[in-house]
Design brief:
The complex is a heterodimer.
Chain A: E1 9-13, E2 18-23, E3 32-38, E4 45-50, E5 55-56, E6 61-64, E7 70-75, E8 84-91, E9 105-110
Parallel strand pairs in A: 1-9
Antiparallel strand pairs in A: 2-7, 3-4, 3-8, 5-6, 6-7, 8-9
Chain B: E1 4-6, E2 10-13, E3 19-25, E4 31-38, E5 42-49, E6 56-57, E7 64-70, E8 73-78, E9 87-94, E10 101-102, E11 106-110
Parallel strand pairs in B: 2-11
Antiparallel strand pairs in B: 1-3, 3-8, 4-5, 4-9, 5-6, 7-8, 9-10, 9-11
Classes of the chains: A mainly beta, B mainly beta.
Chain lengths: ~110, ~110
Amino acid sequence: DAKTTQPTSMDCAEGRAANLPCNHSTISGNEYVYWYRQIHSQGPQYIIHGLKNNETNEMASLIITEDRKSSTLILPHATLRDTAVYYCIVRRGGRDDKIIFGKGTRLHILP
Amino acid sequence: DVKVTQSSRYLVKRTGEKVFLECVQDMDHENMFWYRQDPGLGLRLIYFSYDVKMKEKGDIPEGYSVSREKKERFSLILESASTNQTSMYLCASSPGFGPQHFGDGTRLSIL
């Protein structure tokens, strides 16, 4: 699987949009970009994924650049409950495709 | 919403005991996974299953076994618990090529 690079930590004010970047310059054509987050002492939570088009769901939006070498996860109105470690990964999918998290971005939402 | 339920959030056992960790998913997913998560080592795949009665070894299967008698249930068994198996255990499920959804984890301590 392609490697990803994320900032170690970020701060965002409550109520503002949180924009989390991810670089994946070696992504292959058949690999998807996935985002998960993990709140302290809980299991990882799936957020969103995409191949090349921008995606939006009830939790977040995913913007993927045209060359697919980077992406941004957007939490439109951050709340204190969004404080977590956010992981960006790229994977082919499929039944034997294990999840490997990097170090992720520790997002602090400030009141 | 996808629901992956792990039988215990916290568990304390003694060395040499046989330990059972249970996981149930309610979305009729084909694939189920067991990971352990340790500080500094990230997420590591123990076993996975892509069908009833089918199982495949992950990266660290030694000391563990699994059972999948029904589609919705995937059990992890520590045959003879040892202190180095103290960890956070995470179960996940996914449809054929879709995202993996995780349970809240079982924090297992072996004394």
